[in-house]
Amino acid sequence: MLNVESDLQSSFFLVPGLQLTNISFILIPGSVFKRFPLQGHEKPVKIIADTQPGIITSVGQTHLTFFNFQSSEKTPPEQKVVWEECKDKGCEYNISVVQRNGRGSTFLCGSSRVETKCCEMDLTANPTEARCYPSERLQHITQSIKRFITKEGEHSLFIESGNQTSLYMTSSGYGEDVGIHRFGSQSQRLAPQSHNKEQHFVGLMLSRREDSLQNRIYAFYKQRNQDTDLYSDEWIPFVSQICLADVGGPRNLLQNKWTSQMNARLFCGDPERKVHFSELVHVATVDADRWEESKVYALLRNEWGVSAVCMYTVADIDEVFMMSYFKEPKTESKLNRPRECVLDSSKLDGEILNNIKEVSEMEQWVKPVKKSLSLLVYRQHYTGIYVDASQHSGNSPYTVIFLSLAHGGIHKVLQTENDTFLISEYRPFDSHTHIDSFFLHPPSRKLYVSSSKEVVEVDVVNCEHYGNSCEDCVLSRDPYCGWNNNRCTAETRDPQQKMISGNYRGCSGRLRSARPTAEKEDISKVVLPSGSRYFLQCPVSSLHAEYTWVTPNSRKSCSPKEDQCLLLIKSMSSQYDGVYECRSEEMGYSKKVVQYRLRSTAPGRTVATGFVWVCVAAALMGSFSW
Question: In this protein, which residues make up the domain named Sema (predicted)?
Answer without folding.
Answer: 1-460
